[in-house]
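Recap from last week: sequence in, structure out.
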Amino acid sequence: MKDFFIFIISILYKYYDKGSTKDIAYEKSLLSISALLFLIITDILIALGIDLTKVYPVTESYGKFVKFLGAALITLPYYIALRLLIKEKDLCNKTYSRCIIMIGNISLIVTIISSFIIFVLLIKSRMK
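Predicted structure tokens:
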């Protein structure tokens, strides 16, 4: 499982390791995967019929700052776990064939898009 996360995060690391994000490529990669994990777990919770207000205590009545802070605190455990599990040197030392990287890129894009589509469909089905 660790090798899988190293592979996925290394794809993002190589992407962010250019231009203005070069200095924060590691952090940005971990935050991106943390947000994706949050979305996937939220999809699963909605599909299981679990009330999200019990799990994530941020509701509509809160202001924008509190919602932003809540989202940051909710994704923090994912980020910390990934940071403890995967070190930046693990990403720098890994090399993959061009074909494997292409498959990983496509899989990552498909996962992101399908997670958003599933999220929207689940929310719409709950509003009925």
